[in-house]
Amino acid sequence: MASPSLSTARVASGLLQALTQLLGADHVLQEEAARRAAGADIFPSPHGVLPDLVLCPGSTEEVAAAMRLLAQAGHAVVPRGGGMSYTGGVVPTLPSVALDLRRLNQARIEAQDLYAVVGAGVTWEALREALRPHGLRAAQQGPISGSVSTVGGAASQGMPGGMDGVIGLTAVLADGSVLRTGSAAQPGLPPFARYHGPDLTGLFLGDCGAFGVKAEVVLRLVRERPAAFASLGFATARETLDAILCLIAQGFTGRAFAMDRAKAEAAGKVEGGEALRTALAVAGEAGSIGQALRRVAGLARTRGELASAGWTLHLTVDGATEAVAQALLAEARQACGPRAEEMTPSVPMALHAKPFSVRGIVGTEGERWVPVHGILAPSRAMACLLDLEAHVAAQADRLNAAGISLNWLMSCIGPQVTIEPMMYWPDALEDAQLRVLSPRNQARFGGRQPNPTARALVREMREALRAIFQRHGATHAQLGRFYAPLPADGLAARIKRLLDPERRMNPGVLGL
After folding, report:
1. How much is the pTM?
2. Is residue 77 a contact partner of residue 122, using CB atoms and an 8 Å limit?
3. Residue 498's closest CA among 512, 485, 511?
4. pLDDT tens digit sequence for 19-31
């Protein structure tokens, strides 16, 4: 992050007065601490600059009015949500105004028509709690950081499993005009369907705010259904990936994710309060007191089982009835082959009961964390994994000397494989990490010294792993400013010129 030499002096007093009158003084932030928080994400950007100002609108109308004022003054705008990204997608690289959308935190649930109109600032956890009394959930899977990450943030950044659960949007363009996509684009129609002419909803998904500000997101809802769970142990990453590929070939439609022993052991090291909340959530989803007690006892056994396996694969399958879910799970188990060692399925149960957590945003002793991922065709996944493993092995001495450790995740949602190595290293934590930690861990992990040597090696490793993914034809969610930019002469660039001719919307993101 560049030094805070930029200041609000660039914002004309008349504009500042107009914005303050529009939003209220409490929602026009000029202090350096607020600007610093709004100008960063999880991994420090060497090219970032502080925003000149932070605006916190509370409605679509306020977003539109603020955008019109900023357009008249010619200011660039960078919209942001919970700030949990790690590819620089919400980090300004030019003088700009940050638009913090977390006050757009209302949701309207239409249970009969199975959709919800969700403010961009609603967290995935808050949405889950609002839907629970209706026996519903969002068809769109949110990020595991959903206790902090927002619905609008995921819509802007994208998800490895896709964004098919988004069926409409309300977007504010660079000039302050408001448009709606999906069936709501037709006056008089409710936003119950995505397809009503061209799929303009997809245009704004994964754009990192380059095309417009997402003020509302319309999500498809589905009924909660009985779920069945399994955990399987494997000796190596290759055996685990082979099982995932067999699941894909079988047409598996549930959720499958795998982690290596180091990641599994780290996941098991949680504070007492969070462990209790997880146990209560798991017990609350049981069908009887006896089943609840068995599930909680299983949580206690799981740590030892995870430590005994090189890799673990965790499956969740739902069905119209418990019997259907169990039958589908049995097919999935069979597809994984005879080398799979049956384990207590506490991990997928816990994730199903309590799907959101930010405990992984730092290591168990407060280390910095950053991942790099690739989404691969099944035919390319094994070769990519082998190349990734080979590169990490070749750099092992350097990584160990710098105190950098790697954990691995793999998953599939539909017919693609996601591989995600993640790095932990000793370094100073910044606001993006500290603000989401418990008070105890803020005290434990705050005030540490920066480690520029290790951070530089982490950056080098990320770039090398990114290059390996790209050689194997991987795509990515959360493109931001880290993954390959979009073609300069492609359709996205033409749309950018049409919607934002002055290139004021998050300039430079996606290479646009």
Report:
1. 0.91
2. no
3. 512
4. 999 999 999 999 9
